[in-house]
């Protein structure tokens, strides 16, 4: 028998050997999942010998991660904007960069001072953006849209789990087509990876995550252009569109926004790493 501490060290070593960043952190997470305990409890048990059933469970989880399956798929959870989301294979894993979009959306809505804003999350995936905005913008109604049945089902489940089912309304459909009313803000993290770059990404992304949630076409902007063409018909006066993009795409996306929405003004917001991450397009009142 080996102590939990020894087993954690061994798991971390094996994860490091296949090129996984933060192997000790991930080893902790895998064993926490197998033991169904939190980190404080994990470190309180470092000198204990795990039960064989728990060791077997940890090994099964570790084997999946060694194949480079995303940690969020292995554990079934991912925290985003302080919200614990259920995550399943077939739906994009939320990224920390997307919290920049949520921050800016909250700021934009605060300056509009709408008493009960209506928001659209286009391409909602797991519901990360929709739930974060519903939880942090008082009295907001969020229409969450995705063309993936798996994403729609997961967003709905996450909303119900966090008591937001009444305020996060989920629709299966293409971009703005299902929206039932004009909105004060559109937030969208659409596929923006260039098609030729997708195979070059780390295996967690290129092998395991759904290509339809990543592939934005030849220059990554196919769906962005479509959304910008459709958006004006669904915006209230003075509304805004916020798009997460690759930093290399901002000039072209801003130019297209000026063509599609000539009376609007565009600006960029940088993420915590200092990279342009969110394009904000604000219409006139």
Polypeptide structure, described:
- The protein is α/β, with parallel strands linked by helices and 285 residues long.
- It folds into 2 domains: 4-67; 78-282, Vaccinia Virus protein VP39 (Rossmann fold).
- It contains 11 helices and 9 strands.
- It has helices spanning 4-17, 23-35, 39-44, 52-66, 71-75, 98-112, 128-136, 149-161, 203-208, 222-230, 250-260, and strands spanning 77-80, 83-86, 118-122, 141-146, 168-172, 183-188, 235-244, 265-270, 276-282.
- The strands form 2 sheets. The chain has a 7-stranded mixed sheet, with helices on both faces.
- Helix 2 packs across helix 4 (52-66) and helix 10 runs parallel beside helix 11 (250-260).
- It starts with a helix and ends with a strand.
Strand coverage percent: 15-25%
Overall pLDDT level: 96
CATH architecture of the largest domain: 3-Layer(aba) Sandwich
Biggest pleated-sheet summary: 7 strands, mixed
Produce the secondary structure layout.
Layout: H1 4-17, H2 23-35, H3 39-44, H4 52-66, H5 71-75, E1 77-80, E2 83-86, H6 98-112, E3 118-122, H7 128-136, E4 141-146, H8 149-161, E5 168-172, E6 183-188, H9 203-208, H10 222-230, E7 235-244, H11 250-260, E8 265-270, E9 276-282
